[in-house]
Structure formats: structure tokens, C-alpha cells
Amino acid sequence: MDTLIHVSNVSKRYDSDGAFAVADVSFDVRVGEAVAIMGPSGSGKSTILNLVAGLDRPTSGTVTVAGQRIDSLGETGLAKFRRRQVGMIFQFFNLLDDLTVADNVMLPAQLAGLPKARARRQADDLLERLKISNHRQAYPARLSGGERQRVAIARALVNSPDILLADEPTGALDTATGEEIGRLLRELNGSGQTMIMVTHNPELAARYANRLITISDGKVAADSGAPSAEGSPVSSAAVRS
Fold first, then answer.
1. What pairs with residue 213 in β-bridges?
2. Secondary structure of 133-193 in HEC code, one letter for each residue
3. CATH architecture entry for 3-240
4. What is the pLDDT of residues 167-225, one digit of tens each?
């Protein structure tokens, strides 16, 4: 299995004289893995997710995704990387209330330059796949939490990203709905989607990820299934082929 994400000796602090949010973190994620990152509040979990997404830049170290050093990209390059290679799911959905379900899902595809008709077809296919197509013309405020998270997952997948990043994807849901979304994420991973999720829920991590990285005080305290050192990050073309 090829390495998709390579995080090497990464440290991040937000103030030049402040404490490090993460310190000398290294790990690899291979194509098709489902990785859960756990740790107490303030341990650096979400910072790691943001570094992989290109939303934050490391203070030191390197982040390579699909063979590309994203920590050295300019703002235009980072925006292109995020649109095409990363799908993000948030705890509180982050849907636009003044857009319909279909338009929320279409938006990232249109921002990536996809013609509207093709973006609509891709959105419709995902809404059907995620069993939410009957709400395609509804507005997010009229949906349940589980339905809104399904819409958010469809939006994250619309550009066929290399990586799906989920920050507490079940944190705003009741237990039953959270388990439903967890099963959906496992199905997506079963179809080959590479995934990293941040969660406080050890049961979610145990059931729906095949690897657990534990973060403590900004450092990797444990990694249940670190890949071997052999192999190197593969090119984006190889990942997509």
C-alpha cells in the first residue's frame, strides 16, 4: 500500500514566544487507511488535521500529500490543493443556510471550475448514494442533525478528494445518529476512501477506524498501526489512477 500523507518532524506554534500546539510530530498515512486521532482537549488533534488540510502552516517540519510538499505552497496553490484533494467534515456541519441541500453540495465543485450541469449531476449522485436525495431542494435548517451531516459528507466528497478529514464528525449528534454516521464513514473507507478523523469518542475510533494515533501534549504518544518506513509518498496521478 502506498504512502499518501507524510508528516515529518512537524511542530506548530501560533505565537512566536508561545507554547507549541504540536511538537516534532511524525506519521505516515497510506492510501485507503482510516485513521482516528484521539487525545484530550488542547492536545493538538485539530491542529494536526489543519496542517494536513493546508489550513495551517507548520512552524517547522514538512507535510507532504500525494507527493506534494503542501507546507511550501503559496496561498493560490494551497487553495487549489484544498479544493481538489481534501474533503472536510465538521462537527457543526458548516452548511450555508441560504442554499438548498443540492446547492450546498454543488458549491465546492463549482468553485473548482466544474461546469454547473456536471456539478449538479455529481451532487445528485452523492445525495442518492447517501440516502438524502429526497431533501435535495430543502434548506439545511429544516433537516435533522444526521441529515445535515450526510449533506456535509456529500459536499466533502463532491470533488472526489484523495483525503477525507473529519473533525469530531459525530460530536453534535445523539448516540444513535452518531453510530449511523460512523457506519457511513466506515462504508466510505471500505470503498477505498482514505480518511483521518479527530474524535473524543473511543468507541467511534475503535469501531470505524483501523488505526489509532493518540496525541498528548502536542506529541504522538501512541500509534496502533504505524506503517513501516519503507515506501515513499506517491504522486497525485498515481493515487488517482
1. 37, 223
2. HHHCCCCHHHCCHHHHHHHHHHHHHCCCCCEEEEECCCCCCCHHHHHHHHHHHHHHHHCCC
3. 3-Layer(aba) Sandwich (3.40)
4. 999 888 998 998 899 889 999 999 999 999 998 888 888 888 999 999 999 999 999 87
Residue 146 has a CB neighbour count (10 Å cut-off) of 19
Burial class (CB in 10 A: 0-12, 13-18, 19+), 29: buried
Q: Please, how many CA atoms are within 13 Å of residue 61, restricted to the half-sphere of its CB?
A: 23
Residue 67 vs residue 240, higher pLDDT:
67
User: And the C-alpha cell for 175?
Assistant: 448516540
| Closest among 195, 117, 115, 127 to 158, alpha carbons compared | 127
Three state DSSP letters for 214-225:
EEECCEEEEECC
Q: Are strands 60-65 and 68-69 parallel, antiparallel or unpaired?
A: antiparallel
Going by DSSP bridges, is the β-strand pair 22-30/3-12 parallel, antiparallel, or unpaired?
A: antiparallel
Query: What does the domain layout of the chain look like in residue ranges?
Result: 3-240
Output the CA angle 126-65-7, nearest 5 degrees: 125
pLDDT at 236 over 70: no
Distance in angstroms (rounded) separating the CA atoms of residues 99 and 107:
9
Q: Is there a contact between 34 and 50 (Cβ–Cβ < 8 Å)? A: no
Amino acid identity for residue 155 in this structure: R
Give the H or E element holding residue 79.
Answer: helix 75-85
